[in-house]
Amino acid sequence: MVEHMSKHALIVGATGITGSNLAQHLLAKGGWSVSGLSRSVSPIDGVDTLRCDLADPDSVRGALAGVRPSHVFITAWSRQATEAENCRVNGAIVRNVLDALAGRGIRHAALVTGTKHYLGPFEAYAKTAPETPFREEQPRLPNENFYYVQEDEVFAAAKREQFTWSVHRPHTLIGYAVGNAMNMAATLAVYASICKETGMPFVFPGSPQQWQAATDVTDARLLARHLAWAATTPAAADQAYNVVNGEIFRWRWLWPRLANYFGIEAAEYPGGPDSLEAKMADAEPVWDRLVKARGLQPNSLSRVASFWHTDADLGREVETFNDMGRSRKLGFLDYQDTIESFTDAFDRLRADRVIP
């Protein structure tokens, strides 16, 4: 088999926002076969789904029996009640996969983490104010952080098995996905749709700092391209990378533009946080009526929207944006317009009848 056709990607978490966009990108690019390791079956044509419980080493070994990927992309995590449990469970997910593949000739393993590398875990989230823009060489925080545990599992396996690695740290991920635990695009689309239906004002729910400060986000499609680039560019091996759209914005600028997409007015910012999780606590009946009246997919509100996570992102009291110099110097020059990150995701959610 010729080299350009010998790349076999194993995507751990292939049905999530990152994994699904990566699978689509690799298959469209050509020269890749794609297997997906997850609990559920990937809806993407061309993905060979291997179903397992990622936290169970026996289940992972069974699913991966006989599988010999050239490249492993770890995009999955499981939210737990405490950071200690996050470290235990999510470290085990990485270890279970890489242990099951020991001795099978992996060339490269890529791990997707995120900006909590700089901001800390959920229990101590954004309680410190590291200097912006965040740079990959900044030291780890003293807190427990499951991202650090996952990195260490990759580093140890890479040393044992002699494969190269990359770590990818996106900011807030924007893209098409349903049932994802951290999907701001779908969450804001649901919020705007409910505001339009009920006449509720479309109020920015976050902190004054997020309303005013410079920030950025990461398009899931750009992240997919970045993963493929690092995995196949020798000069990019054995590095950690920030990965964001390449555009800095302020929410006070973006918010009315998102409102315009839905044909509603952006409400005046009230000057302080207005929690979506609290505001939407009783919105399930409204959503159910919308689903029925508009002939939408029969998804529950909690399956489409993750209000808690959007509150966490937009409620931060520190400025948050990332430097991309390390990737740029090595040749990754992709840029993504942020408004289009949101509106393209909204368009797909509408086309698939997920939102009205």
Please give a quick description of this structure:
This protein is of the alpha/beta class and 356 residues long. The protein contains 15 helices and nine strands.
Word description of this protein:
This protein is of the alpha/beta class. The protein folds into 2 domains: 3-173 and 217-246 and 325-329, NAD(P)-binding Rossmann-like Domain (Rossmann fold); 177-215 and 249-319 and 337-351, no CATH class. Helices cover 42% and strands 12% of the residues. The protein has helices at 17-29, 57-63, 83-100, 116-119, 146-161, 184-198, 208-212, 220-232, 251-261, 276-279, 284-294, 301-304, 307-314, 325-329, 338-351; strands at residues 7-12, 32-38, 47-51, 71-74, 108-112, 164-170, 173-174, 218-219, 239-243. The model is unreliable at 1-5 (pLDDT under 50).
Strand and helix map with partners:
Blueprint: E1 7-12, H1 17-29, E2 32-38, E3 47-51, H2 57-63, E4 71-74, H3 83-100, E5 108-112, H4 116-119, H5 146-161, E6 164-170, E7 173-174, H6 184-198, H7 208-212, E8 218-219, H8 220-232, E9 239-243, H9 251-261, H10 276-279, H11 284-294, H12 301-304, H13 307-314, H14 325-329, H15 338-351
Parallel strand pairs: 1-2, 1-4, 2-3, 4-5, 5-6, 6-9, 7-8
Helix pairs in contact: 1-8, 2-3, 3-5
Structural descriptors:
356 residues; alpha/beta; Rossmann fold; 7-stranded parallel sheet; two-stranded parallel sheet; 15 helices; 9 strands
**Full CATH superfamily name of the largest domain:** NAD(P)-binding Rossmann-like Domain
The fold-level CATH name of the largest domain is Rossmann fold
Helix content: 40-55%
Structural class: alpha/beta
Give the termini separation.
Answer: 47 Å
Which stretches are low in confidence, meaning pLDDT under 50 for 5 or more residues running? 1-5
Assign the CATH architecture of the largest domain: 3-Layer(aba) Sandwich
CATH class of the largest domain reads Alpha Beta
The helix/strand series, from N terminus to C terminus, equals EHEEHEHEHHEEHHEHEHHHHHHH
Number of domains: 2
Rounded to the nearest angstrom, the radius of gyration is: 20 Å
Q: Numbering strands along the chain, what is their spatial order in the largest sheet?
A: 3-2-1-4-5-6-9
